[in-house]
Write a structure and sequence with these properties.
Layout (H helix, E strand, L loop, with lengths): L4 H4 L2 H13 L8 H13 L3 E4 L6 E7 L5 E7 L26 H18 L4 E8 L7 H7 L2 H4 L4 E9 L6 E2 L3 E4 L2 E9 L3 E2 L9 H18 L7 E9 L6 E2 L2 E10 L2 H21 L3 E10 L2 E3 L1 H15 L4 E2 L11 H7 L2 E9 L19 H15 L6
Parallel strand pairs: 3-4, 3-5, 5-16, 6-15
Antiparallel strand pairs: 1-2, 2-4, 6-16, 7-14, 8-12, 8-13, 9-11, 10-12
Helix pairs in contact: 2-4, 4-11, 7-8, 9-11
């Protein structure tokens, strides 16, 4: 790995920062201590800091030379509602919360890049360091955009990065086009007429109706989605009734859908509503259907992905970059930034050794070994895009 000596020398410092953040995890829109730490570090590097977008978001701006181009580099800061089971010294000190997805590492890699770029000034243009709250579950990236992120801090392109457990340290993975799916969440309330379980003919049973709806929704993927496309419809909750001999008045269905293509996303929402309302009405009941488009598909644009690939290759060589990684049905709210600006979301390997585990696991921990590599990736990407001849 071709890591700059100046960044290698920061390894212990980056590790200490990461451990400090890991010990004090904060969940969605409560990242006050973390954002204080980020803002203080950026200011100490001589970077202009703005706070408050997305409630706890932080944006640092660094301009060098006379270039008129600007790029955004984004890291997420929030933790999970998860009880950590690790026993190392830097384990979470907050009961029921932990950095189980590596956002502590993401934050520190971008801070390391910010420190180096502020010192080296080896670029021409403007870098926006975007530290985003609430990636998990509530799409803080969408909130930052709604608060005026790209109006206040214009960029020509925007880039994100996530760690990837189970893969060899010193490698990256990316692809053009969709790399992660949308994540929409739905709720359907089936309103019937309750009654005695022994006299179903005197009731309008929402349990039976809801069961038909659940099965019919499964036909959307098998019969409405192009077989060459991918989609998921998952009913994860069925709630209704309180005892075994009473037909309830209503049943609530909740779950999630996933797709890579926005048109497939549109179709799924339309068909789910149509099926729920239609089946309910056919049985003399009603259906109330709500659909929350929480996360858009994460779609990498071609030119920006080429830049990300080139920067990664310079660090780890061509063999170390998987340029056609298989997209996954998980979701990422960096997608909202990619809906506004061209850009690329890349994966950095977090290690595949003994004891490694996937994210959102109570035994997960970000691999400190990759902190300099991730920081150097951001630096190299910036230097490639914001060069003297890029005006």
């Amino acid at each position: 790995m071709k890591i700059l000596p100046e960044i290698k020398e920061m390894h212990d410092e980056l590790t200490e920062w990461r451990h400090r953040i890991h010990q004090h995890p904060e969940t969605a829109f409560e990242e006050y201590r973390t954002s204080d730490f980020v803002a203080e570090k950026l200011e100490s590097f001589g970077i202009e800091v703005h706070r408050g977008l997305g409630k706890t978001g932080v944006v640092g701006t660094l301009t060098q030379g006379s270039g008129n181009r600007a790029i955004g580099l984004r890291a997420d800061m929030d933790a999970l509602d998860l009880q950590e089971l690790n026993e190392f010294d830097h384990r979470s000190q907050i009961d029921g919360k932990m950095h189980g997805c590596g956002h502590d590492g993401h934050t520190v890699m971008l801070l390391g890049a910010a420190k180096h770029l502020a010192q080296s000034k080896n670029f021409d243009g403007t870098v926006r360091f975007i530290f985003q709250p609430a990636e998990e579950n509530v799409a803080g990236g969408r909130v930052m955009i709604a608060d005026g992120l790209f109006d206040m801090f214009p960029v020509d392109s925007v880039y994100g990065m996530h760690n990837m457990p189970g893969h060899q340290v010193g490698t990256f993975a990316v692809c053009k086009g969709p790399i992660m799916a949308s994540a929409d969440f739905f709720e359907a309330r089936i309103i019937g007429n309750g009654g005695h379980g022994a006299f179903p003919h005197l009731a309008t049973d929402p349990v039976v109706i809801a069961s038909e709806i659940v099965l019919a929704w499964q036909n959307i993927v098998s019969r409405n989605v192009d077989p060459l496309q991918s989609a998921v419809v998952t009913v994860a909750q069925i709630n209704g009734g309180h005892t075994g001999n009473v037909i309830p008045a209503d049943v609530v269905l909740k779950g999630t859908t996933r797709a890579f293509d926005p048109q497939v996303q549109d179709m799924i929402e339309s068909r789910m509503r149509q099926i729920a309302v239609g089946i309910a009405e056919a049985h003399g009941a009603k259906a109330e259907f709500t659909y929350d488009r929480r996360y858009a598909p994460t779609i990498n644009t071609p030119d920006e992905t080429d830049e990300a690939i080139a920067a990664a290759i310079e660090l780890v060589g061509d063999a170390g970059v998987n340029k056609e990684v298989t997209p996954v049905m998980g979701a990422e709210d960096f997608s909202w930034m990619l809906k506004e600006r061209p850009g690329c979301y890349i994966m950095i390997a977090n290690g595949s050794g003994e004891g490694s585990c996937h994210v959102h696991n109570p035994n997960y921990d970000f691999n400190d070994e990759i902190l300099p590599l991730g920081a150097n990736y951001w630096v190299r990407l910036t230097e490639r895009i914001l060069t003297q001849d890029a005006n």
